[in-house]
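Side project, low priority. Logging it here so it doesn't get lost.
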Amino acid sequence: MENLSTYNFSISRLKEYFPAASRTGIGEDLCLLNVRFDENIHPLEHPFRFDGVLLLYCIKGNMRMSINLNEYDITDNSLILCTPQNILKVADIPYPEKESLHYVVIAMSQKFASELRLDFKRIISEGMPLAEAPVATLSEEAKEMVARYLELVAGVSKSDMKLKDEALRSLMSSLFCIVAGIWMEKMDELKVASAQTTTRSRMIFEHFIRLVSEYHTRHRNVGFYADKLCLTPKYLSKLIKTASGKSAPEWIDSYVILEAKNLLKYSDITIKEIVYRLNFPNQSVFYKFFKARTGMTPSEYRNS
């Protein structure tokens, strides 16, 4: 069984999954992966978090990804943007489809992303609610622009040129401005398609999901999130149900169960330690919580 470090990924950990010939970048700040079929490359089949920003561009082929418990079909010209604390999982890819798969991944540390020449946090919070729409399909024009920038980034990162780091920051700043524009257009389309959902409900839902992603290991009570959002628990529950079709407790429990499953399957820590990490008062309460939502005890799930 692998230890807990396989669940929270850094750039160095991500590199271990891909051959040296497919990757380039600068140290622990930036990694560019150009991935084609290789029988030695195994997808990340269990949920993980990357401690930074991930941009994945599927050039050719099909794959399936889970992002924050939601399933997405990734096809030709799909662009996926994931921010810190997102929970990701790549489904196993059938052998015939693996042979045609070609995708590019850009992985940036939070430090590198913060040094780009754009207000990354503002773009995400105001124009790009990624919890709602982390996947976009590129138009032909956008596809050509993104491809040119990726080629430039790859060329510069492989070179020995002076001011290489500064050049890469400039290129990445420009690329992410283009990416931000793509998502802003997508969000405009979604707003038209979901006009029946109030803007306020949607904004609160997006904020709620960000809070749950951050605090679910410590707080499972709807009242905590309602206080953070300056709302009553009853009103928050109503807004979340309207915006997503799921209740606030269901969202919180989903995150807690996923966290518990990851710790049970992909770490060697004891169930007692998991109970402590997830802030349950004792093992009995955790066992009842887990079994009520999965049909199995934690021990049964770990051994399954």
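Brief comment: Residues 145 and 178 are 8 Å apart (CA to CA).
Revisit when time allows.
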